[in-house]
């Protein structure tokens, strides 16, 4: 289905009206809260989590709007249930919502390919994590320009190193889950054939 059609967005929003899909969303939300809260890893002064594995699947099943909403709710729940010592900052919640939105945008009602996974992760890693989140962190910590650049560069190194591994992991997850979705009749059948390269 074409991205810029009214029906595309109506279909995504209509997932909120399906009881079966709402139950599935709640399961994913619980899983995301657990992964976001119990398994964060701090590298180069930044927290990373396994949520990058879950959001593509949620985006594929439900689309941009539900995935954006779930990402925002999960971020708030993780913040209050598993505090890290950082102050509440709405900008981080908005970036998580943007990440959810992008995952839905790249994978909902479209053929899944390694190329799309690469473009999606590259966009999120460098536009969102390195760019937007660095600006928010500098605002919170009141960093001067040199400290801001240093923080952004470490973020670029971290995200660059992890990018190929994230692409491989997400690809493997899709390879494993596509047959499951097909058997459970989840997602659009015409996009459940296999993981494509391009």
Description:
The chain is mainly alpha-helical and 198 residues long. It has one domain: Arp2/3 complex 21 kDa subunit ARPC3 (Orthogonal Bundle), CATH 1.10.1760.20. Helices cover 73% and strands 3% of the residues. The chain contains seven helices and two strands; from the N terminus they run ααββααααα. It has helices at residues 6-14, 19-38, 51-62, 64-81, 90-107, 114-141, 145-184; strands at 41-43, 46-48. A two-stranded antiparallel sheet has the order 1-2. The chain is globular.
Topology of this protein?
Elements: H1 6-14, H2 19-38, E1 41-43, E2 46-48, H3 51-62, H4 64-81, H5 90-107, H6 114-141, H7 145-184
Antiparallel strand pairs: 1-2
Helix pairs in contact: 2-3, 2-4, 3-4, 3-5, 3-7, 4-5, 5-6, 6-7
Question: pLDDT under 50 segments (min length 5)?
Answer: none
Which percent band covers the strand fraction?
under 5%
**How many strands?**
2
| Radius of gyration, taken over Cα atoms and rounded to an integer in Å | 17 Å
Order of helices and strands: HHEEHHHHH
Q: Could you please say which CATH topology applies here?
A: Arp2/3 complex 21 kDa subunit ARPC3
How are the strands of the largest sheet arranged?
A: 1-2
Structural class: mainly alpha
Number of domains: 1
């Amino acid at each position: 289905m074409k991205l810029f059609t009214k029906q595309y967005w109506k279909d995504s929003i209509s997932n909120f009206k399906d009881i079966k899909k709402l139950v599935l969303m709640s399961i994913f939300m619980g899983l995301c809260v657990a992964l976001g809260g119990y398994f964060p890893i701090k590298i180069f002064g930044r927290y990373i989590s396994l949520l990058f594995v879950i959001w593509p699947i949620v985006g594929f099943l439900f689309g941009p709007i539900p995935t954006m909403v779930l990402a925002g709710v999960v971020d708030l729940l993780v913040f209050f249930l598993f505090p890290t010592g950082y102050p509440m900052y709405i900008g981080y919640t908005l970036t998580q919502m943007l990440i959810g939105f992008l995952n839905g945008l790249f994978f909902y009602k479209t053929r899944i390919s390694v190329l799309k996974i690469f473009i999606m992760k590259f966009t999120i890693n460098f536009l969102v994590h390195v760019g937007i989140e660095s600006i928010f962190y500098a605002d919170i910590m009141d960093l001067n320009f040199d400290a801001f650049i240093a923080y952004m560069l470490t973020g670029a190194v971290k995200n660059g190193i992890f990018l190929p591994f994230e692409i491989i992991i997400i690809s493997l997850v899709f390879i494993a889950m596509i047959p499951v979705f097909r058997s459970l009749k989840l997602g659009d059948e015409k996009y459940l054939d296999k993981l494509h390269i391009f």
